[in-house]
Amino acid sequence: MHWIKTLSLAGAALSLPTVGHAQTADLIACMEGGYSEADQATIDRYVSEFSINDDSLAQALGMALGTRLEECAGPDAEEETVILLAQHRFALLSEKGIEASRPDVVEVVRRIDTLLSNEDRARFMKLFSIMVFGDPETGKQSGLNEEDVDWFSNVIIDEPVNGSIEQSEYIGAYLAARVLRETALEQLAPE
Q: Residue 155: which region, alpha, beta or left (left: phi > 0; alpha: psi -120 to 50)?
């Protein structure tokens, strides 16, 4: 799964400090438009042809976002701000790509969002983040204990999940993109 390599690079930003950018909303709004025709076509293609098995689209997206990142963040922006802004946009476009192509995945995530209690949803996302990105304190990969694995599996392996490996990978990609987007937003936000 090539997409996970790109995801892991973006995930490295999870360990960045909060940069406390006062104009977070303006930065994010700036990234929503203003692209050249060619760059916008690349972005549209990334969303419409999204695949976790082809990182060439993600690489092209990175190139398309690059110029706009510099324009929106400005020449004096801290590197962390640029990385977090890129992470946010990459993750958001990945979510949109999955939403456009995999309604079955969106339905599973909707079920997680709506049917789990707030406490269970928080536990689910914490366990998911640990499995994908490692321990939040150290950044090191760490497994879950047997009880957590069983609980996690019982939450997600239920209708409408069909149990295919591909569907599971897309569910993971969607949730990972959400974590990356939300984390970038938290770290960009003013303290």
A: alpha
- Looking at residue 143, its pLDDT comes to 74
- Give 58-97 pLDDT, tens digit per residue: 999 999 999 899 899 888 888 888 999 999 999 999 999 9
Q: Which domain holds residue 20?
A: 2-188
- Are 135 and 142 in contact by the 8 Å Cβ rule? The answer is yes
Distance between CA atoms of residues 83 and 45, nearest Å: 22
State how many domains the chain has.
Answer: 1
The whole-number pLDDT of residue 163 equals 65
* List of residues 6+ apart from 149 with CB closer than 8 A: none
Alpha-helical runs (H) found in the chain:
2-11, 24-30, 37-48, 55-73, 79-101, 103-115, 118-133, 146-156, 165-188
| Inter-residue contact 94 to 52 (CB < 8 Å) | no
CA separation, residue 31 to residues 19, 68, 85 (Å): 18, 7, 8
What residues of the chain score a pLDDT lower than 50? 1-19, 160
Residue 10 tokens read as 């973006």
Is there a contact between 53 and 99 (Cβ–Cβ < 8 Å)?
no
Collapsed DSSP state (helix, strand, coil) of residue 51: coil
Question: Which sign, positive or negative, has the C-alpha torsion 109, 181, 190, 39?
Answer: negative
